[in-house]
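Case study 2.
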Amino acid sequence: MEYKDISNMLINIYFFLGGGKGSMKKKRILIASIIFILIICIVAAVFIIKNKNRSTSNTVYTYSNVNPDYNYSEDNVLYLDDSGILHLIDTASGKDIVYCDKPNCTHEGYSRTNQNPSCPAAFYGLSKAGAVIYNDHLYFIGNMSDEDMTIQYLYVMDSNGENRKKTAKLENVQHVKAVLYRDNYVIGAYSNSVELNDEGQIINDDKPEAGIFVIDLDNYKVYMSDKITSEQSNIMDIYYEDGAVYYSTVRFGDDVTELMIEEGATADAESFAYDNMLNGIYQYDIADEKTTCLTEIDHINDLSLLDGDGYYSSKDGYFVFDTESRQTRQLPIDADGKTQYGPLKKSGDFLYYALSEENSDEVTYYRLKDDKSEELMKLSTEKAFGIENICGQSVYVNYTDDEGEFSLGVISLDNLNKGNFNPRKLRCYNEE
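Prediction:
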């Protein structure tokens, strides 16, 4: 209900009750009635407006570690297909729709013959990430206009994709790896691989660097963390809390190319990475614009930043690095003779993990809380799944369906905790 509707309603009530004719007592009753109705209408209008905003403003999306084109919330998944068309999957129904309400639209993406797509769901550029609904607007990070591959923009538009505007400019940002929207900030991780001269020509195709950017949505000011620069440098995870960005990094030493040749890394890539990768956890304070290295760790596997803390495994077991205390402790996970299946994930106080024993065709799923592990289920390797994201009560999983297709599905957190795996299929990755 809009305020003009409220005004019209009051005018109609006024004339219905007499339009000002009659005794003073009748007028007082009339005025009191109008005031009472006005209060009720205003309260109702405020309630409606607040709840309308709640439907999108309070939606929390999280990124995909594997593909920055995917963003997850409890209720839906937003993703960009191979042609750059934005889709929304409703988690409850599994329905996949193109994010376009334009009548008779063919949803044609960018191409040489269609360099200015009219479909509001069409996004394009060498790097595309962070397409989410936030604060009743649709946001997207990429470059849909300039040929300069070292510049990205934050695009802000209406919630239906119309009226696009370039706002913040991200200079020397080539590949956007992950994006979060929190506390009216846009927080992203990026990596660069080439160096250009003033004419835009590549003068060095092997200049790896990575860092964090933050955009303040109040004024579109851009903050940049210190860069990490070494061979194969990259940012794996990002997390935001109370004005600080936490992120995990991986890099090799400057002589990694020579080492790869000498040690025959291609023959045993896993062992080579274990011996030569250096992992780090950093904190970037937005207000102070200060980057702090919290820890650097070598000889580990699969560092994951979960709720801001660093979880990883080594030949000695599983560990967690507490970013607040900067202390490391070992987790009571018996992994002797076992292989980790899929990534570690957290929901509340529970840590979820899966292990497969050597020469076994089964995967066992567990949850850990207060140093106590509980077995949830066993599945054959053919039916096994990896947890992609946990958003509220929605657990998004990667699995192979009954037709042998690698797919994205969803189960409830309650079913995961009960050991029931009967996913609702959301899409087949082979369709891209």
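The mean pLDDT is 85.
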